[in-house]
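stage 2 :: seqdesign
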């Protein structure tokens, strides 16, 4: 009896220890915000009700792929990863401007191993790489931990800003994200396209109501739609069904946005 009980407790503790989690790596469009800010990141609603395993939102406002590596955000997140975990990497909003921009967030233009050495405002030097180099590094290091990386392209800015019909043209980081995912052989979600599909169906008036502060950050209602778009994007072929087995009934009910 005691031996049986001990085995049961051991089995239960193993199941708890081995339960997978989904880690979110991103910027302010994914991060959690206070009500006083008037904006919300899509990582907040996507963590509630769509997956049967925990979702850990590690997104950092103002961050880029470059700063995730340089400032230690990725290192700290990597230490949390266990074999079998999932890591969604979605960056790009803060990665433009080039390596010498005053924001100190921009990457080198291109997708290869090009570098530029810059002097930061604190007087130290930094070797700046391409967006794909940074994301590729995160992918490789996640895989080395036994985790499963998923690359997601950045969400669109308000696609109806100053136009009457939706602007569905992505910037270069959409292609960068898709290409590094293909190069590394990991799942890819075109979150940009999925959001465009959602916004197109909702129309200009409703979509623009989701951007009360600026053209980049959504309010809580908008974040809910962006989270819905991400779930729909996970159902497309490039995502390889990576998280489908963890969908709740709420996620299963969402249409694919491909």
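stage 2 :: out
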């Amino acid at each position: 009896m005691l031996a049986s009980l001990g085995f049961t407790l051991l089995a239960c503790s193993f199941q708890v220890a081995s339960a997978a989690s989904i880690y979110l790596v991103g910027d302010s469009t994914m991060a959690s915000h206070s009500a006083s800010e008037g904006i919300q990141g899509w990582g907040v609603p996507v963590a509630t009700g769509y997956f049967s395993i925990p979702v850990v939102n590690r997104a950092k406002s103002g961050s880029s792929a470059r700063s995730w590596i340089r400032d230690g955000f990725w290192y700290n997140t990597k230490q949390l990863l266990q074999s079998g975990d999932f890591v969604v990497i979605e960056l790009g909003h803060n990665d433009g401007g080039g390596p010498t921009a005053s924001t100190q967030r921009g990457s080198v233009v291109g997708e290869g191993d090009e570098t530029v050495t810059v002097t930061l405002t604190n007087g130290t030097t930094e070797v700046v790489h391409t967006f794909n180099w940074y994301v590729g590094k995160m992918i490789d290091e996640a895989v080395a931990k036994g985790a499963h990386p998923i690359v997601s392209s950045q969400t669109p800015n308000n696609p109806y800003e100053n136009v009457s019909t939706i602007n569905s043209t992505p910037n270069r980081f959409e292609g960068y994200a898709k290409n590094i995912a293909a190069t590394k052989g990991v799942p890819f979600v075109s979150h940009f396209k999925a959001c465009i599909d959602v916004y197109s169906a909702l129309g200009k008036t409703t979509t623009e109501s989701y951007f009360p502060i600026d053209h980049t950050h959504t309010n809580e209602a908008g974040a809910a739609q962006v989270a819905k778009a991400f779930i729909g994007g996970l159902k497309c072929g490039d995502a390889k069904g990576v998280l489908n087995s963890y969908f709740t009934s709420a996620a299963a009910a969402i249409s694919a946005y491909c």
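stage 3 :: structure notes
- The mean pLDDT is 94.
- The two ends are 54 Å apart (CA to CA).
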